[in-house]
Amino acid sequence: MTLQLYAWNDFFDHPYKGHKHDYRSVSAKGNIRIIDLKENPELFEHSYRLLMSCNGRTPKPLSEHKGINAMNIGEIFCPWDKISAKSEFPLRTVEDVPFINVYERPEDNTPFDISDIIAKRKKQS
Question: Fewer CB within 10 Å of terminal CB in the chain, N or C?
């Protein structure tokens, strides 16, 4: 199974560092296992609540959810070496991961200096 997630942030009316958008993506290869409500009700309910909250919905108690038995919730397993990510903006630290709110920064069209990233890649080759 391959999983791909992405996020896109447009700011066409306020370019930043020569960009008009910022794109981030993650790809992972692994296996998926369906969580059985009867075999593992605690994990199923936890996953259900997480799914609902991530979609901005208020979860009903499982006993009140009419279609709960028809719902499939899965658990994805993948080794770290099968996960990759990319970003248009350079990411050097964990603090760099959230999208930059370019509207709170002055317009800046000086390209990102990524010479350190390029040098590191050359050393690894």
Answer: C
Mean pLDDT by 10 residues, the chain (125 residues): 91 93 94 94 93 88 84 92 93 90 91 90 87
Helix (H, G, I), strand (E, B) or coil at 71: coil
pTM equals: 0.64
Tokens representing residue 13 in the block: 């009316």
Residue among 92, 67, 81 at smallest CA distance from 29: 81
SS3 7: strand
Chain centroid to CA 26: 6
Helix (H, G, I), strand (E, B) or coil at 96: helix
* Separation CA 57–CA 97 (nearest Å): 26
The residue type at 62: L
